[in-house]
Design goal:
Strand order of the largest sheet: 3-2-6-9-10-5-4
Number of helices: 4
Radius of gyration: 19 Å
């Protein structure tokens, strides 16, 4: 009987600098992040066809960049529907989600999801005056933005937007946060 070594499971991919995808993901999961809903209105493609559609995406890669002028940055997975739309549509909005809005965040974070039209069906919102994009009721704050710059960064696109409007919607409750793979509330 021959002794043959058992096959070891394949090692996770390691980048040139020696950090695997799993190691990087695990480290970054320990960084608490605020949760936002990025929205845009896809214009009507054909004047005689159906009206445009609202598109939404949950994100945790969002930050303030500059006060003068007021700029924010959102990271989008390259080739995602939102990335493709914001490449064509310069106006978009951000709703900073409150701690009670985890179901909305989960809904718009689903992969292989149903159409955005159905996702917005029972979510209360108002339409932004500058962007035409949905601004969620109950969010801590909302911003309407115009794309100033797009930067490719690895498998993501960093979209820098000039803030056109800013509204504080509620002072009750805290922000929805994301930490170690789960939505959390600040205590």
């Amino acid at each position: 009987m021959l002794n043959t070594p058992s096959a070891a499971p394949p090692a996770p991919p390691v980048h040139a600098v020696g950090v695997s995808n799993d190691e990087f993901r695990a480290a970054m999961s320990r960084l608490a992040a605020g949760v936002v809903l990025v929205t845009a209105h896809e214009p009507q493609a054909d004047p005689d066809g159906p009206s445009g559609e609202d598109v939404g995406m949950t994100a945790t890669s969002f930050m303030s960049v500059s006060l003068d002028p007021p700029l924010v940055l959102i990271g989008l997975r390259e080739g995602s529907r939102m990335d493709d739309l914001l490449d064509e549509q310069p106006l978009w909005a951000v709703s900073l989600l409150a701690e009670g809005q985890s179901s909305v965040a989960s809904r718009f974070a689903m992969k292989n999801r149903i159409s955005d039209r159905l996702l917005f069906a029972d979510v209360p919102y108002v339409r932004g005056k500058e962007s035409g994009a949905p601004l969620l009721d109950g969010a801590l704050a909302t911003l309407e933005c115009r794309t100033e710059q797009r930067v490719t960064a690895g498998d993501h696109t960093l979209v820098i937007g000039r803030v056109l409007t800013s509204s504080l919607l509620t002072t009750e409750g805290g922000p929805l946060t994301y930490f170690r793979g789960r939505y959390r509330h600040l205590d």
